[in-house]
Design a protein that fits this description.
Strand content: 15-25%
Number of helices: 9
Structural class: alpha/beta
Largest sheet: 6 strands, parallel
Helix content: 25-40%
Number of strands: 8
Distance between the termini: 31 Å
Strand order of the largest sheet: 5-4-1-6-7-8
Radius of gyration: 18 Å
């Protein structure tokens, strides 16, 4: 049976500075973006407004080269390439579902089957972002269901990896069979996921635990003699 591995981005696959902050660093507005991230985390701003304001900040200064440099500068967890290669080798599917900028997330496309992210105007562009097109956290569930239908994957064979409040609705949805918290923020309560990994630097550690859970679910049940 195939499986679908759904990866959040910021805090899950890489740590410390978010994709938006890394893009901001490349255009000289990283500190400003950090303050906006703090407002977003505190509930003082929604994701659509955050996306619109950050596009105004970096606008035409963000080039494709700067986007690639931001991606390279991220503090990625160890073992990412091995994990994604193993998923593909098994004939399973890996997708990225994030509220972060597609300008950053799409650099993962060579290693995953699909990327769902906030769509910014292609760099370099100073065109305003259409906030009506910006995804919401609850949109993650719809995105995953759409991918399941397209790939022929059952909810019970879907694993969702994340770290923060924007993942809570997906973790609790009937579209997910196994919920995994990697470096969860303080806003993720204990018990919100099936597996939880604090201070994780190596993606192979939670992935191995997931493999064990998936293997246990597919083990045949043998009848015992009375």
């Amino acid at each position: 049976m195939s499986a679908l591995h759904v990866w959040d981005l910021d805090g899950t696959l890489h740590r410390h500075r978010t994709a938006a902050e890394l893009l901001g660093d490349q255009t000289g507005c990283g500190d400003h973006v950090t303050r906006l991230e703090e407002r977003l985390s505190a509930g003082g701003m929604d994701h659509a407004t955050f996306a619109a304001v950050t596009q105004m900040l970096w606008g035409g200064r963000l080039t494709p080269e700067a986007s690639r440099a931001a991606f390279t500068a991220a503090d990625w967890l160890e073992g990412i390439s091995e994990v994604l290669e193993d998923i593909r080798h098994r004939g399973e599917h890996a997708v990225v579902v994030t509220m972060g900028p597609d300008t950053f997330a799409r650099h993962l496309e060579p290693w995953v089957d699909a990327v769902y992210a906030t769509q910014y105007p292609p760099p370099p562009s100073s065109r305003p972002l259409d906030i009506h097109q910006a995804p919401r956290p609850d949109g993650k569930v719809d995105a995953v269901r759409s991918m399941q239908l397209r790939m022929g994957i059952a909810p019970g064979a879907t694993v969702a990896y994340g770290d923060g409040p924007s993942d809570l609705e997906l973790w609790s949805a009937d579209a997910v069979g196994l919920a995994v918290a990697i470096n969860p923020s303080a806003a993720v309560p204990p018990g919100a996921t099936d597996l939880r990994f604090e201070d994780c630097h190596d993606l192979r550690i939670p992935y191995q635990a997931v493999r064990e859970r998936l293997a246990a679910r597919t083990q045949p049940v043998h009848a015992t003699a009375a």
